[in-house]
Design a protein that fits this description.
four-stranded antiparallel β-sheet, globular, single chain, mainly beta
């Protein structure tokens, strides 16, 4: 089902302001101290104390960090091929201890390990991108959602069939969702980018199946709950659980659309899309 969602300028009563300036940000997470932690492609995780406050270095030397998640006083970082957590034990504002909990992930192809989220079951869930655009992967962890305990044990494939699940997030009911970017070889209009309701053991279609493909082998594949224009990179994902917006915004999904930056330059769709989901049984 392709849903119509808002796009363009902000709605009446809303505004967009610059909170901080950080080079090439990839992931955001508010810490237990109320400050904003920001991963950057320059291998640094910054911390911002408030609007217009200068960003300070919290951790450095993490290659292409794409996911951040706090578990108590530990900041977990998903970076190329690994997951580690960092601590600031001496309280000087910069991490001084790091512990790798997951390593040797298949992250040296087209994509790598992506966003992180802590689940109600106290497992960490993480998107794991594919090594290719469309292929049969040698490593069963590629193109999946992985989960593991904070100490790194119990690593397993939770769901599969996702080309590049850039971000993961839980809604207010404790259900897991993930964005995904489809394959690039099917022309400018197919397949759409996706927002998926992730359930354990399910397959979400990549590489053989996509929304609208009615091939027999796709009958048991799970369709997305929302779809976006093809090749526009549905990336960041957050559910609104605050009280400042009108009540109808509670538990809406907000998806950041990067836009097509190299394949189809005439496509200008980019921004933040609001997706309103209605529970239907277990989905």
């Amino acid at each position: 089902p392709r849903l119509v969602v808002e796009t363009g300028t902000t709605a009446p009563g809303f505004s967009l302001t610059t909170y901080a300036e950080v080079p090439s940000p990839t992931s955001l997470a508010f810490g237990p101290d109320g400050r904003l932690y920001v991963a950057s492609t320059n291998g640094v995780v910054y911390v911002v104390a408030g609007q217009d406050a200068p960003p300070l270095v919290y951790a450095r030397g993490v290659t292409v960090p794409l996911g951040l998640a706090w578990v108590e006083d530990w900041l977990f970082i998903s970076y190329r091929g690994s997951v580690q957590y960092v601590e600031d034990r001496d309280g000087d504002g910069e991490s001084d201890r790091r512990t790798v909990v997951v390593d040797n992930l298949p992250s040296f192809g087209l994509h790598q390990n992506d966003g992180l989220a802590l689940g109600p079951d106290r497992y960490l869930y993480m998107g794991m991108g594919s090594t290719c655009d469309h292929c049969t992967e040698r490593d069963p962890r590629s193109g999946t959602i992985l989960r593991f305990r904070p100490d790194g044990t119990g690593l397993e494939v939770y769901a599969s069939g996702l080309r590049n699940p850039y971000d993961v997030a839980f809604n207010a009911r404790g259900q897991l969702f993930a964005t995904d970017n489809g394959r690039d070889d099917l022309g400018p209009d197919m397949p759409p980018e996706e927002l998926n309701h992730i359930r354990q053991g399910r397959h979400y279609g990549w590489p053989e199946c996509w929304l609208g493909n009615e091939a027999p082998l796709c009958a048991d594949r799970v369709d997305p709950v929302a779809a976006f224009s093809a090749h526009t990179s549905a990336n960041g994902l957050a559910f609104y659980h605050g009280a400042q917006f009108p009540k109808e915004y509670f538990d809406n999904a907000f998806v950041t659309i990067l836009g097509s930056i190299y394949m189809f330059p005439l496509d200008t769709e980019r921004g933040i899309q609001r997706v309103r989901l209605t529970p239907q049984g277990a989905s």
